[in-house]
Protein 1
Amino acid sequence: MGDVRIRPATLLPPPLVYAVGLGAAWWLERRFPWGWQPPRGAHLLAWGVLAVSVLLMLWAAATIWHHRSTVNPYRGASSLVTGGPFAFSRNPIYLADALAYAAVTLLMGSAWPLCLAPLVWATMRYGVIAHEEAHLHARFGAQYQDYCARVNRWFGRRGSY
């Protein structure tokens, strides 16, 4: 796999994990319908959540690029980014992906994406995020540990509640 100080040993491309989950849910829905009628106005809410997820993703990417680091999960971080959306989430891009997954689930009107969500989450947590965290810890040491002590993995500053 290589030296985690140089780059993360990420197993799968993160967008592929969410896309496969939604693709499998779509396939299952076509063969074994398990749909439901979303409440009135749910589609509007879903499109709003999708828009927020895209904006969060763009904000996070712009923040990373501003620090001259990379959004590529197969390349090593050149700096520890803790500002912008990273001040309230250690994984704002993956948070945006999860919001998009939830929005598409609502738009699909199927229970299948909900059933597959734990598998998608576990794949992201252990197949992607764990490797990125190991890389950041190896690369930035105490600075990364301090950051982890201040900011939650998904959302929220520690000790701010």
Protein 2
Amino acid sequence: MADSSSPPLAAIEFDQVRKLYGGRAVLDGLTLQVRAGETMVLLGTSGCGKTTALKMINRLVEPSSGLVRVEGRDVREWDPIRLRRRTGYVIQEGGLFPHFTVERNIELVPRLEGWDPGRRAARVTELLELVGLDPARDRGKRPQELSGGERQRVGVARALAADPPVLLMDEPFGALDPITRSRLQREFADLARRLSRTIVFVTHDIVEAYRLGTRIALMRDGRVLQVGSPAELRDAPADEFVREFVSSHVLS
């Protein structure tokens, strides 16, 4: 039996990961562990490697060297399709298929998994309610009939459709207006607490990182400079870059 004082198991691990593009290292010895059930925010400026790292988790990008593990297994040992169905993926604007209805978008993976129609319909209803949409009103709409915030909610619902243990989010609220973005951040933080999923969330916005992250990995030039809770990065920055990055906003 596991010692209750032991740290949570790592759901995702990067072990000395490098990624080269044209001889340039986008990731340069990335080492990081994401604990089961936490929201890990990959934070940094454009070009620091955070989206590349995220895409390695579901094998959209392969490492040049080093290891990426999901649930203790090297991602290269996973069938890519099976791995991607176990890792919900949300991008800006939700990445919805414009010719599908909301319902068809959400039920895509359950349909591929062979769920029967009744189970799929019930799951769509459950998820639309979970993300704050009206199943009767919205399930038959197409993405262009929704607002940006509504499309993003559908994107989250689709990522959760087959109940994956891992959720990957690549700046999902970045294209929204500030008021909608702030509201969805608050709602997502509450949703993450209730779902207890392992979430990896990419952003360049430190305020968003502080609102959503259990822990934050601050990245620069393909490396992690510091990993810690929002309070740890604020109160005990590892170096001057971390101090300046955090102090670029007034954080309470």
Protein 3
Amino acid sequence: MTDHPNARLLIGPAELQKLDRVQVIDTRPAERFAAGRIPGAIHLELWGLSLNDTDPAPMRAFLWTISHYLTTRGIDPKPPVAVYEDSETGIRAARAFWFLEYFGHPDVRVLDGGFQAWKGAGLPIETGEAKTAPKGTWPDDGSTGRREDTLAGWRDVFAGAGAPGHRHDLAILDTRSEQEYRGTLKRASRAGAIPNAIHVEWRDNLDATGRFKSAADLRRLYEAKGITPDRDVISYCQGGYRAAHGYLALRLLGYPRVRNYVASWAEWGNREELPVEQVKGQR
């Protein structure tokens, strides 16, 4: 379907319809799910579940909550999973994708173009009351094999963000809007950016139809900014949603070391002891 090195992470509407034993996950708001969805889809609303402290105890509690929620929604770690949202390949689907990869699901895909692509292909839509999914078999104890190498906390970011002797092989990817990055839009107690962060807004990953750009276009976008496959990359935004989209884009390109700073600016911008950069001019 695509020319991306990890093209298997995306799926098109026709391919999804033909896939056997797939769990389809709808990450849209509940009212949109109720109004019409892919037949058999499970509703997974993660929007209100966020973290603003990546110290060990709150991080453990947050991750347990997410894994337990996956179980209650009927998510299973064995069959293939396809996640989608509404009009584009957006941040809700990307964040669900990242969670499932972090928790060790071996076969997670994102519907490229979202629900609009499904409708545009003339495929069936289910309405009315959705069937209650049986409780899943997702283990809460982490025995699915968590991918700790995909997760970052503030200490990991600080190592590449201006600490004495900071790692120059670590790239901090800022996926927020230009206004947030420049500090003209304040969404925490402080405005600005993580020091040494490289700005690539998440929407730049997509073409005019809401699908991911070609591998060549994505590669040019990131490599021109110095985000190259030989570097460790930590992606951040406000709360880990747009950061997950950057994570997915780089996973599509086959980058081997990419992490999501799950608390992002909601934590960094509010911790007075962490450095903040006021970005001026072009970088």
Protein 4
Amino acid sequence: MMPIGNPMIFRHYPLEAALELMAQFGYRSLEIWPAQIEMCRTVKLRGEFVQLASALGLKLVRLNAAAADYFVPLQKPRDARQIVAGLKKDIDLAKSLGMTELLTWEGRRPEGARARDVHGWLLRETIGIFREAVSYGQSRGISVSVEVHPYTLGIDVEFLKKLCDGVASDSFGVTYDCCHFGVGLPDSYIKAIGELGPRIKHVHFSDSDKISSELHFAIGKGCLDLAGITKALKAIRYRGSMMLDLWLYPFPEAGTRVSLPYVRQVMKKLNLKQR
């Protein structure tokens, strides 16, 4: 069994070199960061990128557009239109690359927003955004998930549950990032798995120091209860995909060598399918 990989961890390498490293490590499927392919501005160039990856035995499955500039904190109704337009554009980009999934996020909490705002108009607007985006994605064979960050709305698990239930689509769900939940909910990141249950569609697996928001540690280099995370995923009968995430870890090659065997064992324990 092999998790999904993301060459963004080798962001300082030329794209071709990063892809070759992914293939050498044995990856078969990839999540791609738009910034890495920003030079592929035409349909033809994107086609060449797909061919380059395919020649290395790599399948493109997901576009990771979390934290895109268009996904601004909601302040006024036209902000929602800007966000929906951006999501549709990224869905089209994912489709042009032969992908089946778009990863985004659910947005930051606007400055000054109170709890009643978050669970009131902000929740309603966010549900509306994703209902439209998911419907558009379904017409193009693209599912959508939100990767919660420590500073985004969904770190409030009740908000996240209401969002998923409000969108009410099998083509929408949560990407559980071990680092993000470990930092955002340092005392309840495992409990959150049980609360979210089948709403979790994807997992970004990593270790964390439970302090550094975006720093995804190699396995064993942080302090997360990784066995506890695995046990919680097994308890909800998790059957989604899994990616090894080493974003911002300063030693990505060493980290991959240490982490891949562990994550593959986790996948085996969960009986996850090869991607």
